[in-house]
Amino acid sequence: MKERYPEAFDRIYSKEDWEKATMETRGIELWTNPTEPENKESVVWERMIAAMEGEEDILVQTPYMICSRKMYEDLRSVCEKGARVDIVINAVESGTNPFGCTDYLNQKKKICQTGVHIYEYLGDQAQHTKSLAVGEELSIIGSCNFDMRSVYLNTEMMLAVDCPELNASIREQARPLKEKSRHMSPDGRTEDGQNYEPREQDMAKRAVYALLRIVISPFRHVL
Questions:
Q1: Model pTM?
Q2: Which CATH number fits domain 24-222: 3.30.930.10, 3.40.140.10, 1.10.3470.10, 3.30.870.10?
């Protein structure tokens, strides 16, 4: 380790150094799904939804969305209670998960009907962040995608951090991503961000997605 990362060992960091590099929080909780190798209770999802309820401004980053009917209903409930929910996902043109991209093409109308605002990010590479900025104080960061495998099958973990400074930092980090996105409103209208650059898919990729849109429909619950 010393040979590979000598800069990590060239000094001993003082308390002042750590205070400059970190943020003070008012509390941190670790949320996790059950660990048994079987279908699970959606503990992490339910806690995230509960945290969103009653807030007005929510920002979500997830690589893709593959939602169950219950997940759609939960998102709709949050929006109906007055929340503005912005979700930044990878655009199909740059997404690295073909099943996630294909399901999004099939489910786009249902996603819009929940009331969320979708930002289809099209940058130099796909983003893989899983985070929520809830209101101005709470941040939720970890491994849980907005998909059924994360919610009902995988053992995912999320840190819930009560820290306005971290919340603001996450929102600032997402701002240039939204500017490179195509914004889709709940009514289906689209608007390109100020730095959004459209990108054409090649013929082969379009053909693959067209085939997958038919093939995955009966199996989307295991994607």
A1: 0.90
A2: 3.30.870.10
